[in-house]
Amino acid sequence: FVADTRTAGSVCLLLQVALPVMLFAPSACECVLRGGTNAQMAPQIDYAALVFKPVVERCCGVSFDLEINRRGYFPKGGGEVVARTHGPLTAPLKPITLT
Hints:
- The radius of gyration is 14 Å and the shape is globular.
- The chain is built from two helices and four strands.
- The relative contact order is 0.26.
- By secondary structure, the protein is an alpha+beta fold.
- It has a four-stranded mixed beta sheet with strand order 1-2-4-3, with helices on one face.
- Helices cover 29% and strands 24% of the residues.
């Protein structure tokens, strides 16, 4: 699948929408996300890769890959990130307890 903002729109916001659908897909899934990787007022791709991904994997029991092929900045965007899941979930998502 491909999601392209054709602007500097945030690929991280696209990831937040696409990832749950990809995790519940019946098989492995790949989505190419194009737009801004480092946009103002949106999560940065480095935060998604270095903070969000490990926390979600550890806390929720899911696994996915993020590959940053090209960075995109305001105003043109042009960044490209590939998100990959490894197949259908074999167990329900674990809840996150924040205390």
